[in-house]
Design a protein that fits this description.
Cytochrome Bc1 Complex, Chain D, domain 2; mainly alpha; binds heme C
Length: 172
């Protein structure tokens, strides 16, 4: 007495249906730090600086926009002058950046035209040139002593001092 029809009916009810569990990945980018591209004055190759080094409001503004908010600000110019002397810039460029062994930095004419902008001058001071201007950026100034050199915020103050001796702001 085999009732295959009955068995088949039972089996037919054993239908499993898997539940799809696909979900969208919903990835979204934070986009919190927009950085301009810096290039070396030597050959225009990319100049990489750790984003964490831009650790003041002015430095953050600079790396986002290329503008130097310290230009024209008396207190920051004063700070910049101290660093300009401390890092021996004045020995080669003169106390008012008027030129000595090294060229005048007052503008409007520069050996490297990009130094008319604060972005360009930042790149030159940070990474140097091939013609006698050494890199002054933190970690680059003395390769065997990574603690030596100007921080990005210091470079901006030094530039503010340099601009205070000429007629250009570098932010135009
Ligand atoms: C040992 C001397 C020396 C010291 C110290 C020095 N510089 Fe220079 N700097 C030079 C020379 C030489 C040049 C020209 C470089 C070239 O022709 O490539 C130059 C070029 C420059 C330029 C580009 C000028 C242009 O016309 O394009 C800037 C900007 C500059 N120096 C800023 C500074 C600052 C800021 C400091 C201090 C943090 C400094 N330099 C320290 C010798 C020096």
């Amino acid at each position: 007495m085999k009732n295959y029809a009955f068995l088949m009916a039972i089996l037919a009810t054993l239908v499993s249906c898997g539940q799809g569990s696909g979900t969208g990945d919903g990835a979204s980018s934070g986009g919190d730090l927009k950085m301009i591209d810096l290039v070396t004055t030597q050959d225009g190759s990319p100049l990489k600086i750790d984003a964490a080094m831009f650790d003041t409001p002015a430095a953050k503004e600079f790396i986002a926009t290329g503008k130097n908010p310290y230009v024209g600000k008396a207190d920051d110019i004063k700070e910049g002058k101290k660093k300009f002397n401390l890092f021996s810039c004045q020995a080669c460029h003169g106390g008012a950046a008027e030129g000595a062994v090294g060229p005048s930095l007052q503008g409007p004419n520069f050996k490297y035209a990009k130094n008319a902008t604060n972005k360009g001058m930042f790149e030159t001071i940070w990474h140097g040139t091939n013609g006698g201007m050494g890199a002054k950026g933190l970690g680059l100034m003395q390769p065997d002593n990574p603690a030596e050199g100007l921080r990005p915020d210091d470079v901006l103050k030094v530039i503010a001092f340099i601009r205070s001796n000429g007629t250009m702001t570098g932010n135009e």
